[in-house]
Amino acid sequence: MKTALFLLLIGLSVSSSVFACSSDTVIMVKDARLDILVAKQNQINKRTAMMTSAGLYKGYRLQVISTAKRDDANKMKTDLMNRFPEQKSYTLFQSPNFKVRIGNFLKKEDAEKYRNQISKFFPKGIYIVEDTIEYTHPEEEQE
After folding, report:
1. With a cut of 50, which residues of the chain have pLDDT below it?
2. Residue 61 phi, psi (nearest 5)
3. DSSP label of 51
4. Which domains does the chain have, with CATH numbers?
């Protein structure tokens, strides 16, 4: 009786080890919502790559004048507003100069095109400068 029990025990252990070795495939089940989350995170990463740490968008503006005289800067800003009302103009003070900039461009190519238009009226040194710009992403407008 002991030998039969012993043989049965050995037979079970051998068969279980053979059974365990025969199944070497792994089946992975992925949640379908994971693809949606990955796509959403990719959108967020693309948008934040265009932003500063303060949450403002990085872009380009055209610097039309840099002068130490406030009156000259104000005259230039008024002239820009009259000639190009579709673009917003900005006056910055960086001691000791007043700088007048115009536009909010995401791409440097767009700023380049606009610079060609402005240079017809102001042929002296118009520079494309990197700046934080006023921009509302289309997804933010819908919310």
Report:
1. 18
2. -135, 165
3. B
4. 59-135 (3.30.70.1070)
